């Protein structure tokens, strides 16, 4: 096992991976960082946890699309996909807002 120091949205992380898998891990880190920064820069989402959830949903949609011949969102327009993502964001806001008052 080797350890890599990486940076995602300005936050440092120490990650471990098997020998020979460091390039794949670094590629994944770069991809996730790009997704999270894009969400942060274009959406009205505050908080790294919310940005991470939205990025995870985006990556999950991409993954599922590769597993299904027609994709999980087949038949939906880009506008409809954006509406679904907005609804997910609003649901997250409603669920996480009460927790913000705890801190």
UniProtKB/TrEMBL annotation:
Quote the subcellular location field of this record.
Answer: Cytoplasm
Q: Which domain of life is it from?
A: Bacteria
Determine if Cell division is one of this entry's keywords: yes
Any idea which UniProt keywords this protein has? Cell cycle, Cell division, Cytoplasm, Septation
Q: Cytoplasm as a keyword?
A: yes
Q: State the GO CC annotations.
A: cell division site; cell septum; cytosol
**What Pfam families does this protein's entry cite?**
ZapA (PF05164)
A single GO BP term for this record reads:
septin ring assembly
**What job does this protein perform?**
Activator of cell division through the inhibition of FtsZ GTPase activity, therefore promoting FtsZ assembly into bundles of protofilaments necessary for the formation of the division Z ring. It is recruited early at mid-cell but it is not essential for cell division.
Checking PANTHER family in the record gives: CELL DIVISION PROTEIN ZAPA
Quaternary context: Homodimer. Interacts with FtsZ.
What is this protein's name? Cell division protein ZapA
């Amino acid at each position: 096992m080797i350890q890599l120091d990486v940076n995602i949205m300005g936050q440092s992380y120490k990650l471990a991976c098997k020998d020979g898998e460091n390039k794949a891990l670094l590629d994944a880190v770069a991809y996730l960082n790009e997704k999270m920064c894009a969400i942060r820069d274009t959406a009205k989402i505050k908080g790294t946890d919310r940005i991470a959830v939205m990025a995870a949903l985006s990556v999950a949609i991409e993954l599922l699309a590769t597993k299904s011949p027609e994709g999980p969102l087949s038949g939906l327009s880009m506008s409809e996909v954006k509406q679904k993502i907005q609804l997910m964001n609003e649901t997250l806001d409603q669920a996480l807002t009460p927790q913000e008052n705890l801190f």
